[in-house]
Design brief:
Elements: H1 11-17, E1 24-29, E2 35-43, H2 49-57, E3 62-68, H3 87-93, E4 98-105, E5 111-115, H4 119-131, E6 135-137, E7 160-165, H5 166-172, H6 186-207
Parallel strand pairs: 2-3, 2-4, 4-7, 5-6
Antiparallel strand pairs: 1-3, 5-7
């Protein structure tokens, strides 16, 4: 099984072959919020995404992270977002009215790609990120518009996702290894602050509060 190179098609298949606590970890922080921030491919799968999700969520919003903990070969733990069936994530997202998921994609240019069915949330995120100096776009391969995508399984049936390029994530940390990701850069904090403003604006619109 250690020679496997094809990612698992479902969490149930993954759980049959991998060991929680040594191969992967599941972490949920329940802040009693209607907002869920999640990184379904964190740790060594799409490095940097779980650190960013946690920083955006704490202390006000619920946070879910699935982290690859292997020394190498974490990519096999990548259950695609359109088939993401990990029970803790499904339970958390079905209680959320505002959902934002973080992902990592390839590419040397520092770009945050916007996706998901929550068009208004995408507009807010785009505005806040551009104001903070970040380049944004929409990724043809990862639009996040499938209703089965984990970001779109909240109470409203729509959410947002941010696909962060490798180039952007490299600028946010001292490096991409587990130890290097413990040393975020100033750009990391600028990015997190911009996303926090966008989340706050979206929840205020959703609840009618200012």
């Amino acid at each position: 099984m250690r020679s496997r190179v094809i990612p698992y098609a479902s969490f149930s298949e993954l759980a049959e072959n991998e060991v929680e606590g040594s191969d992967y970890g599941i972490h949920l922080i329940d802040a009693g919020s209607p907002v869920l921030i999640l990184a379904p491919h964190g740790g060594g799968i799409e490095p940097g995404t779980s650190e960013i999700a946690f920083a955006v969520a704490v202390p006000h919003y619920n946070c879910y992270n699935f982290e690859g903990l292997k020394r190498a070969g974490n990519w096999i733990l990548h259950v695609t977002s359109n088939a993401y069936d990990e029970p803790v994530a499904l339970s958390a997202v079905r209680k959320a009215s505002v959902v934002l998921s973080f992902h990592g994609c390839s590419g040397p240019l520092p770009v945050a790609y916007l996706g998901g069915l929550d068009v208004r949330f995408k507009e807010i995120l785009r505005g806040q990120l551009r104001t903070a100096g970040f380049q944004t776009g929409e990724h043809e391969e990862f639009p996040g518009t499938n209703p089965h995508n984990i970001c779109n399984k909240g109470l409203c049936g729509r959410g947002a996702q941010l696909e962060l390029s490798h180039g952007l994530r490299m600028l946010m940390f001292a490096g991409i290894t587990r130890e290097e990701r413990k040393r975020p850069t100033e750009l990391f904090f600028t990015f997190v602050a911009a996303v926090k403003r966008a989340v706050r604006e979206r929840i205020e619109e959703a609840t009618g509060r200012r």
